[in-house]
Specification:
The protein is of the alpha+beta class. It has 19 helices and 26 strands.
Length: 613
């Protein structure tokens, strides 16, 4: 028996909507009836107007409006007691509603972020979504949202039984992505992890905000799990939606946004004092690589395994090669060469058909010194070899090696286990279950690697357990990089029954900050001599320190006036000098919050902390 008894006995309207959805699916959108669409299903069409292709939903206009509204009376307060290496670090950890924080950072970090990675709440009906009515009073918010959070926090549960299920999620995401774009530098990139529930909608929203031409992804993450937890098809994948801020063109060519430098190690061989490495075989595997398709490239390579001599010989009927796949009908062995100890090597078959070479016979004979035969009789392979200078050869693990570097792009499918993210966090925190579904650090390092910038600022405004910060510090240790991070997280309270709460973590922010501390300590112990920034300044969204409405000149502060006559500026009672300075820094675009500040003692009533870049 169900212990939860609803007050409502009948939901006649809801039942009718469900019946209507079965008859006319296009007339019921996000749980609400679209009467215009219903009329069209019944053959009643309005006069065709200015139709256009776009994604729309209930609340979209308001979401656009929210993105443009300023944050009044709020700031970021420095929390020194939670910070680590505050005087030297360039990393930030910010507690607060990420939309509010993004707006507060917009001026200070405009166009400064190279990479954004976010793993937003998936729209599963269980995860919270943010309530963006912080510009309203509590009573107005309750009325607008038709829901009251018993703790008064700015988040609610987006139940999939509610109307506007998808709309609520889109209304949460749209303004955040809109402001995030402003924070990206011109060649900046955003990566967004998402599952099937909102993948299509997220892509359409990003098309609108970033433009379709700036779509790079998606990448599909093979989660390497074997859970049989869904009907019909196992969901062993997630998506990473990727967009760039704008295209960078050089002439008529669009420059690659994602690429990474990889080192390729090749075994080196020596022959008569010359050194070389072996390339691929001079054959093809595609449909166009058959002898029928390329009848002029079907010669035989005669190879003497004793003298190592090789000769390309046209010993076949080219006309038959165009129409036949019978080797005995097409080829005629050169018995004179075979009697001299040569072995006939013909192109390997391609999908059951006779194959061909990629080199013409003239090229083969002219450059035969650049050819090497590998394998054994019956399994010989004809490959190209590249000669190198002796000083390019290195000895690694007892073998001669040649190391080359090249830029490569990303594959569309990547393999990163979801379990590894959980295991890494459990090992670091010495406890399982502290945070659900943390991201795989190696995957985030992979994304950091393919933006190909070791000195950039990386933002994660759904930072959760701070996997992104951990990945950045690890990668900096691996490649001597100096990447900086900005983590933003709503201090969502941990449930009292949760393992995190039992371990003493009251909210997610406490988990994230502790992870960074422990990860940093671990990295430092493993790389004691490395120059790695494992610190972070902590800020928290808070009320303003300045009575802006009381200021002259339309709410502007004259910095010179503040320095010479500080008592003429109206501050909130109890405001600290350091908090005032950071609040002023938020309104400048050339002094980031990570800048070092220094206290100067003067003869005035107040002492101020001048900004030091």
């Amino acid at each position: 028996m169900n212990n939860k008894v609803p007050q409502q006995i009948n939901d006649i309207v809801g039942d009718n909507v469900k019946k209507l959805a079965q008859l006319f699916p296009s007339a019921v959108k996000d749980g609400a009836v679209d009467f215009e669409a219903l009329k069209e299903e019944l053959g009643q069409f309005e006069e065709v107007g200015s139709e256009k292709y776009e994604l729309t939903w209930a609340g979209k206009k308001n979401a656009k409006k929210i993105a443009q509204e300023d944050v009044i009376g709020r700031t970021l307060k420095f929390i020194p007691e939670d910070s680590k290496d505050a005087d030297t670090t360039e990393n930030l950890y910010i507690e607060g509603d990420n939309l509010e924080v993004l707006k507060l950072l917009r001026q200070n970090y405009y166009g400064a972020i190279k990479m954004i990675y976010i793993d937003p709440p998936y729209n599963t009906g269980n995860d919270f979504v943010y309530n963006d009515s912080f510009v309203m009073s509590q009573e107005e918010s309750d009325v607008a949202e038709k829901a009251v959070d018993e703790l008064g926090e700015r988040y609610t549960v987006n139940k999939n039984s509610q109307n506007r299920y998808h709309a609520n999620w889109l209304n949460m995401m749209y303004p955040r992505l809109k402001i995030a774009k402003d924070l990206l530098c011109d060649n900046g990139v955003i990566f967004i992890s998402i599952d099937d529930n909102e993948f299509d909608n997220l892509t359409k929203v990003c098309d609108e905000i970033f433009e379709p031409d700036n779509k790079i992804g998606p990448i599909i993450q093979n989660k390497l799990n074997a859970k049989n937890d869904t009907v019909d098809i196992q969901k062993n994948h997630e998506y990473i939606v990727i967009y760039r801020k704008q295209r960078i063109e050089k002439g008529d060519t669009v420059q690659a946004t994602l690429s990474r430098e990889v080192a390729m190690y090749r075994d080196v061989f020596e022959e008569n004092g010359r050194y070389y490495y072996i390339n691929d075989a001079i054959t093809t595997r595609g449909e166009g690589g058959t002898l029928n398709a390329r009848p002029n490239l079907g010669y035989t390579v005669y190879y003497n395994p004793v003298t190592k001599e090789k000769i390309g010989v046209v010993d076949y009927d080219i006309e038959q090669a165009k129409i036949s796949n019978d080797e005995k009908l097409i080829y005629t062995d050169r018995t004179d060469l075979i009697e001299q100890g040569y072995i006939a090597i013909r192109p390997p078959k391609v999908r059951g058909n006779l194959g061909c070479w990629t080199w013409a016979v003239e090229k083969f004979n002219h450059e035969s010194d650049n050819i090497i035969i590998t394998g054994k009789e019956g399994k010989y392979a004809v490959k190209k070899r590249t000669f190198i200078n002796k000083d390019e050869v290195v000895l690694l693990h007892g073998k001669f090696q040649y190391i080359s570097h090249s830029m490569v792009n990303s594959k569309s499918i990547i393999d990163f286990s979801t379990n590894e993210g959980t295991n890494a966090l459990s090992e670091l925190m010495k406890k399982k279950g502290i945070f659900n579904n943390p991201k795989n650090i190696e995957m985030i390092k992979y994304f950091l690697d393919i933006i190909n910038d070791k000195n950039c600022i990386v933002l994660d405004f759904f930072s959760g357990s701070s996997s992104t910060a951990d990945a950045i510090m690890q990668l900096n240790a691996d490649d001597s990089g100096h990447r900086k991070f900005v983590m933003i997280q709503l201090p969502e309270e941990c449930e009292k029954k949760s393992d995190a709460y039992k371990e003493g973590y009251k909210n997610i922010c406490e988990v994230g900050k502790e992870r960074i501390r422990r990860a940093g300590n671990k990295i430092k112990s493993e790389h004691p001599n490395a120059d790695i920034d494992v610190g972070f300044k902590v800020f928290r969204a808070a009320d303003t320190n300045i009575k802006w409405n009381s200021l002259m000149d339309m709410g502007q502060i004259d910095i010179n006036q503040m320095e010479t006559s500080p008592d003429t500026i109206d501050f909130v009672p109890g405001a600290k000098d350091v908090d005032i300075v950071y609040e002023l820094m938020l309104r400048q675009n050339d002094v980031p919050l990570s800048s070092k500040i220094e206290q100067i003692f003067g003869g005035g009533v107040r002492t101020y902390l001048p900004l030091c870049g």
